[in-house]
Amino acid sequence: MSKNLSLNRRDFLGLGAVAAMGAVGLAGCAPQTPADQSLGETGTADNSDAAATADWLGAEPEIAESDIVETLDTDFLIIGAGTAGLAAAGAAADLGLDFIVCDKATQVPETREYLGGVDTAYAKANNVTIDRPKLLNELTRYASGKCNQKLIKMWIDDSAEYVDWVTEVMAEAGKEVMLDMPPEHATGGTDYYVPYVQHLWEPSYVPPTRNDVIAERLAGQGHEILFEHKMLKLLHGDGKVTGAIFETKDGMKQVNAKNTLLATGGYAANPVMMSALQPAAVACCTASSFNPTCTGDGIRAGLWAGASKDIDAAPMIFDRGAVAPGVDAGYEGTDEDGVLRGNIFQENIGSQPFMKVNRRGQRFANESTPYDFICFAATYQPGGVWCQVYDANMMDDMVRFETVGCSRVVPYIQAGMTFDEYTAASQESGILMKADTLEELADLLGFTGTDKDNFLAEVERYNGFYDAQVDEDFGKEAYRLSAIRQAPFYGCWFGGTLLTTIDGLRINEHCQVLDPELNVIEGLYAAGDVSGSFFSGNYPEYIVGVACGRSSVEGRHVAKLLAGAAE
Ligand SMILES: Cc1cc2nc3c(=O)[nH]c(=O)nc-3n(C[C@H](O)[C@H](O)[C@H](O)COP(=O)(O)OP(=O)(O)OC[C@H]3O[C@@H](n4cnc5c(N)ncnc54)[C@H](O)[C@@H]3O)c2cc1C
């Protein structure tokens, strides 16, 4: 059996769970939105209007030849040095390709901890088996069929080779791989397929992290990443891409390339694109947990070059955007000035399946679901937010809940993590409410009149469900019910945290970008969040690490293909 997570408190603090990190444009912790600016009963109307009018694509910039201060030539241009770009560069270096890797940021992005891989050497050594056809079809079901199954299969088939490569590279940096496997996992009344694919190198947020290690390894092989190189447009014509133009601190630079890989991430940091393409996500999000340099540049450049894009959106949203009472989800400010209203990066307790109610004080969904389900359910609730409520026994409750992935808290509780540590961000912001009576808690949470009556009645009803071990309203599994009887009582309002977007340019199983007629655009590839054809509507969070997993494997696949080493 696999080694289970055995983390200490310091590791936990490193995970960013308590980090009230400065999200883009801090909105403070006091209620930000006057009642008359509320999104209203559905929370979607304002954003739908924006969708109808926004010109998120814009026009391709015209750059005169005389503005180019330097021209470089390469066989393989990799644009973006994040999860996908580094995987491509790592393989390109090992395979002896002539390549250049550029990024508009000043350093590689923060490493995201879980890397999904199927039937890796480590998993095999620990007798973990994955039902590959079932996994392929689970991911397809998640995408409602709006995906390229051959591409998904490529991830399933190629992922072990990539994770094994990272495992070796990380071992050289002194970090051992592990599978984050709960001792016994069940999704209760639900029937999600939860394969153990999530590989970790702990402590995952403490340097050197995966991205750092791969970047340093590249430097050691003589390949410096060109930072502060912002791709403005692709060079294209006659159905072919031949490089790109970059804005750099020294002026415009042209890179001519036989092949170009877009690995520029998604568009979560672009409020115009978000409002236009993902109104349902915007309507329930309060927290900016995304990489601020992921502004959809690659998607727009690809479209300018004749590519096609997924029709439906796919956001990655977690249920951790703690906010003050009265704050609505959605942007404050319009167009490119739009800023989500919360100032907490991620308050992880939001993902625990405690009772959650809307502004009317009423439950509205089963709380024991993947992270984004409660967020999407809140899209159709007043203000797009919800309130989570629990009592003094919350630590015992969370041990019993035994959630998976990055909401998995049992090892940290066993390592001594306290409630105050777990909720430090919301406590420091003054938005975690604590009271000796439920009446007082209702007042602190902002419930008045009928809403307060509803809230108190809902707690009583929920306690009855706990006693009977049956959720008559939403069918939540019995072990994920909890009593709310023991003072002190706690409550906090939440919206979604927007992490990234995972719909993008349509690609085939070799990551070649496709035009609207499904013809390959010669010389153009896409990997990671800039690319689509994998997810639709949401992120299959129970397949933990599949986002980094597919991003890396796609990037690596392109490098291997160009080196003639891909199957
Ligand atoms: C807080 C958080 C936690 C997450 N945790 C996990 C996890 O545990 N497991 C998991 O599987 N997924 C996780 N994800 C999602 C995962 O990080 C992404 O799906 C994955 O990193 C996508 O890889 P990428 O290479 O496409 O994008 P990124 O890794 O974001 O890299 C894109 C790069 O492109 C650069 N770029 C953008 N525009 C340009 C331009 N015009 N010119 C040049 N460079 C440009 C950016 O600066 C950036 O460095 C998490 C995401 C977030 C935000």
3D architecture notes:
The protein is of the alpha+beta class. The protein folds into 2 domains: 68-266 and 504-562, FAD/NAD(P)-binding domain (3-Layer(bba) Sandwich), CATH 3.50.50; 270-291 and 310-499, Succinate dehydrogenase/fumarate reductase flavoprotein, catalytic domain (Flavocytochrome C3, Chain A, domain 1, Alpha-Beta Complex). Helix content is 31%, strand content 19%. It has 18 helices and 18 strands. The protein has helices spanning 9-14, 45-53, 83-94, 121-125, 132-142, 149-172, 210-220, 271-277, 279-282, 297-304, 371-379, 394-401, 410-414, 419-422, 424-428, 438-445, 449-468, 546-562, and strands at residues 68-79, 99-102, 115-116, 177-179, 198-201, 230-237, 240-248, 251-262, 285-288, 315-323, 331-332, 339-340, 355-357, 386-390, 433-435, 489-501, 512-514, 520-526. Strands 1, 2, 6, 7, 8, 17 and 18 form a 7-stranded mixed beta sheet that branches. Strands 9, 10, 13, 14, 15 and 16 form a 6-stranded mixed beta sheet that branches. The protein has a 3-stranded antiparallel beta sheet with strand order 3-5-4. Helix 3 runs parallel beside helix 18 (546-562), helix 5 (132-142) crosses helix 6 and helix 6 crosses helix 18 (546-562). It starts with 8 loop residues before the first helix and ends in a 5-residue tail after the last helix. It binds flavin-adenine dinucleotide. Flavin-adenine dinucleotide binds at residues 79-85, 102-105, 109, 112-114, 116, 229-231, 263-265, 289-291, 293-294, 297, 316, 406, 499-500, 528-530, 545-549, 551.
